[in-house]
Write a structure and sequence with these properties.
The chain has helices at 9-33, 37-60, 65-103, 109-119, 122-129, 134-161, 163-194, 199-237, 243-253, 262-274, 278-304, 312-326, 330-355. The protein is mostly helical. The longest helix is centred in the first third of the chain and has 39 residues, at 65-103. The radius of gyration is 25 Å and the shape is elongated.
């Protein structure tokens, strides 16, 4: 016989009132911390990536969580934060330089495209066979290059003017990262207990989300960094201008299945062939196909795994959608939302099938 007694109308009203107040207080709290959500999010990413190191240090330091968190934070600062800041400001400098070169006609996209067409006549012939007007295409690509360089310049100058805001956000991110590293396990345990679900369901959902999100996000970030670094390195060795700018672009394009960074180095190799630099073009083709191409095929299965990763198309669309809505933060948030979506539906499907 059940011990659960029916709630009285007073208890129901009290519960509804409490839930309403809880929702209002939670909304107010979100609005208060909303200006700092970017710093909070990247602090969470930082603590997630370096949590394995934090655990090992806690064991070696006999449970001294604060000291372990401090050492972990310094390690993350040296390995990740400082290099990213250096790359960011280099990207700003080269983005502004590219726009200025196009504006001053030092770089003429239309002339470059015409030179490529003259050097590789098969390209215009193929376009004509498919009914593509090469003159309109040349004008469109030229205008697109100018618009893209202008956008990069504007974003770079905007970031440069907001140095104080950027420094404040960075400081808050590092400050919060320390506490998330130190108290992360207790915070996660509290969040799990706060979910209005049974313990089995909470455990299943949490494990699935952590498994998929960690594998996907960590794998995508590492592969993007490696491919961007390898691409930027060969561009710098070959003396191609704005190597850092192209490295960042290749890192983002590494999310595109199958082609990825080749969307940058193949056109650049064609340009080098067109300008008569056959040696550099050949080196770039071999390096791109062997080194940059194999980096994705070798690293991604190791870091992500074949059973836990998100499908490539879902990673691509969730990342692009995240970037379009949330800016640069969407690079990570998009796949995380996709991982959460799959985790909930996988949990629902498993429970539904087991109960039927």
């Amino acid at each position: 016989m059940s011990d659960v007694r029916p709630r009285t109308s007073k208890e129901v009203m009290e519960r509804r009132g409490f839930m309403a107040v809880l929702a209002l207080v939670s909304l107010a709290f979100v609005l208060v911390i909303l200006p700092f959500w970017s710093a909070i999010f990247w602090a969470c990413v930082m603590s997630l990536l370096f949590n394995p190191l934090q655990r090992r240090l806690v064991q070696r330091l006999n449970g001294r969580h604060s000291l372990a968190a401090f050492i972990t934070l310094i390690t993350g600062l040296i390995l990740v934060v400082i290099p990213v800041i250096a790359i960011l400001f280099g990207f700003i400098r080269e983005g502004v330089g590219l726009y200025q070169s196009i504006e001053s006609q030092e770089i003429n996209p239309a002339a470059i495209l015409e030179r490529i067409g003259n050097a590789v006549p098969i390209i215009p012939e193929l376009m004509q066979r498919f009914g593509i007007d090469t003159s309109n295409l040349r004008e469109y690509l030229s205008n697109s290059a100018i618009s893209l360089s202008r956008l990069l310049s504007q974003e770079a100058l905007s970031l440069g003017r907001n140095t104080v805001s950027f420094t404040l956000g960075l400081g808050m991110m590092l400050y919060l990262s320390f506490f998330l590293l130190r108290d992360g396990e207790s915070i996660v345990s509290w969040m799990r207990n706060a979910l209005p679900m049974s313990e089995d369901r909470r455990q299943l959902l949490f494990n699935k989300f952590v498994e998929v999100s960690r594998a996907t996000v960590k794998g995508n970030l590492v592969v993007a960094i490696v491919q961007g670094t390898l691409g930027g390195l060969i561009f710098w060795i070959l003396g191609i201008s704005a190597a850092l700018l192209w490295a960042v672009i290749m890192a983002f394009l590494s999310l595109v299945p199958a082609v990825g960074a080749s969307l940058v180095w193949i056109p650049m190799a064609v340009y080098l062939y067109a300008t008569g630099d056959w040696g550099a073009a050949t080196v770039l083709v071999i390096y791109g196909a062997v080194v940059i191409g194999l980096a994705d095929n070798v690293l991604r299965p190791i870091l992500v795994g074949r059973d836990t990763k998100l499908p490539d198309y879902l990673v691509l669309f969730s990342t692009l959608g995240g970037i379009s809505i949330l800016g640069i933060n969407g690079f990570v948030i998009g796949p995380l939302i996709a991982a959460l979506f799959l985790s909930f539906w996988a949990t629902f499907a498993e429970e539904f099938n087991s109960s039927s």
